[in-house]
Design a protein that fits this description.
single chain, about 190 residues, alpha+beta, 2 domains, four-stranded mixed β-sheet, three-stranded antiparallel β-sheet, 9 strands, elongated
């Protein structure tokens, strides 16, 4: 293992965050080459797991990959699952306004679905306690709007449960941020 003096400091730091970047470690050790060596050794010993290029975690849970695509939030079926409105097992669904490749990615052996949204529509999420961390998750109103925005299927019984959780005033305020065409279509489908 490389210089021992930095290892306790690094181990202490990485246990406190769900995801960290190579840049975070570089700030601690102040040496780019040494950072890569440390990350390589920690990954090889399976103390850390690589999520994607430059991003790592002590936890091999794909839900934490939401922090690799900031600004982003967990949405659609994943949000419903976290709110206990969806019983089936889901893939992690990350909604981001970053310019990234969309579609399915394999992270820790699981499918993670990345969807891109217009930056103007990057709102409507709260922080949801998951283990010892808080994850950005779309609220009920934004989850409903995202299902319509992305053209995703929502079973009637789940839609009914979701509608019971909706704050209509909040939903109307959210709708003002969308185009008139979207508002018209949405309101004609969800009366």
């Amino acid at each position: 293992m490389p210089k021992v003096k930095f290892i306790p400091k690094i181990r202490d730091y990485i246990k406190k965050v769900p995801v960290f970047s190579a840049k975070d470690i570089e700030r601690l050790v102040k040496n780019k080459n040494y950072t890569h060596l440390i990350l390589h050794k920690l990954e090889k010993s399976q103390e850390i797991f690589r999520i994607k290029k430059g991003y790592y975690s002590v936890f091999n849970d794909p839900i934490f990959s939401v922090f690799c695509f900031k600004p982003s939030y967990l949405g659609l079926y994943e949000a419903l699952s976290l709110y206990n409105l969806w019983e089936q097992e889901t893939n992690v669904v990350i909604i981001t306004s970053r310019k990234v490749r969309t579609g399915i990615r394999k992270i820790f052996g699981s499918n993670v679905i990345i969807k891109k949204i217009n930056p103007k529509l990057m709102f409507g999420f709260d922080y949801f306690k998951y283990d010892n961390f808080y994850l950005p998750v779309s609220d009920f109103e934004k989850t409903l709007l995202d299902f319509f925005y992305f053209g995703e299927y929502l079973p009637k019984e789940v839609l009914k449960k979701l509608k019971n959780k909706i704050n209509n005033k909040k939903l109307k305020n959210y709708l003002k941020r969308y185009s008139p065409e979207f508002r018209f279509k949405f309101l004609n489908n969800f009366k």
